[in-house]
């Protein structure tokens, strides 16, 4: 474990904004990136305490006989119901928070990134030192998602976008904004933020 605690920086952005691309550039620059959404899925599948809590809240059917997370069951019985979504988030977010905290203690870097889709919506941005929002015009985002996920309908995409805070609100809450439109290069913006964060994380 290192003596100097790294600066904790969040990177977020609405679906199709390009936050994963921006996070990859930081990663190429040698910055450790914690992918919160992927890690949440891993914890739901492997963390014994969290599994116990999910079974207590949603029943034995939440996991298959071999202990695998029953995504089909959860998608059908949880994700359409606002109250149940709140319940599952209330179990998963604290598990991710403590996992991220222990992970960040072992990173030998001036700062680390926590990449998450709902940093502002979930309130977890309050636990971070700085936040970067990746922003892109709505039309461009919808086109990107349809190209990337051809199985999603425009209606489904709009539903996901409606669950997320509007870009203007995220930009006003963020410490740094990366504009990822077709006429704005993303790499120079990442490099500029990287330089500033290196100074802050000294």
Provide structural commentary.
This protein has 202 residues and is of the alpha/beta class. The chain has two domains: 1-32 and 111-202, 3-Layer(aba) Sandwich (Rossmann fold); 44-106, no CATH class. Helices cover 54% and strands 12% of the residues. It is built from ten helices and five strands. It has helices at 19-28, 36-46, 48-58, 71-77, 82-105, 119-122, 138-148, 154-163, 167-173, 186-200, and strands spanning 7-13, 33-35, 111-115, 130-135, 176-179. The chain has a five-stranded parallel sheet, sandwiched between helices. The relative contact order is 0.22. The model has no long low-confidence stretch (mean pLDDT 92).
CATH superfamily of the largest domain: P-loop containing nucleotide triphosphate hydrolases
Count of helical regions: 10
Residue stretches low in confidence (pLDDT < 50, at least 5 long) are none
Helical coverage, percent range? 40-55%
Keywords: ATP-binding, Coenzyme A biosynthesis, Cytoplasm, Kinase, Nucleotide-binding, Transferase
Family: Belongs to the CoaE family.
Organism: Fontibacter flavus
Pfam family, one: CoaE
Question: What are the SSEs and their pairings?
Answer:
Elements: E1 7-13, H1 19-28, E2 33-35, H2 36-46, H3 48-58, H4 71-77, H5 82-105, E3 111-115, H6 119-122, E4 130-135, H7 138-148, H8 154-163, H9 167-173, E5 176-179, H10 186-200
Parallel strand pairs: 1-3, 1-4, 2-3, 4-5
């Amino acid at each position: 474990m290192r003596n100097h605690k790294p600066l904790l920086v969040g990177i977020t952005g609405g679906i199709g904004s390009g936050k994963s691309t921006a996070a990859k550039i930081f990663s190429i620059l040698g910055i450790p990136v914690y992918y919160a959404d992927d890690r949440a899925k891993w914890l739901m599948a492997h963390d014994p305490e969290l599994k116990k809590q999910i079974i207590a809240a949603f029943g034995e059917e939440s996991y298959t006989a071999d202990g695998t997370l029953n995504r089909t069951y959860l998608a059908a019985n949880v994700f359409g119901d606002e109250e149940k979504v709140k319940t599952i988030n209330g179990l998963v977010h604290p598990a991710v928070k403590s996992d991220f905290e222990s992970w960040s203690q072992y990173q030998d870097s001036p700062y680390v990134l926590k990449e998450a889709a709902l940093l502002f919506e979930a309130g977890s941005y309050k636990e971070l030192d700085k936040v970067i929002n990746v922003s892109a015009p709505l039309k461009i985002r919808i086109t990107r998602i349809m190209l990337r996920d051809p199985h999603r309908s425009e209606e489904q995409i709009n539903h996901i976008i409606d669950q997320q805070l509007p870009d203007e609100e995220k930009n006003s809450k963020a410490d740094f904004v990366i504009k990822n439109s077709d006429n704005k290069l993303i790499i120079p913006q990442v490099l500029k933020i990287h330089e500033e964060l290196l100074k802050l994380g000294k």
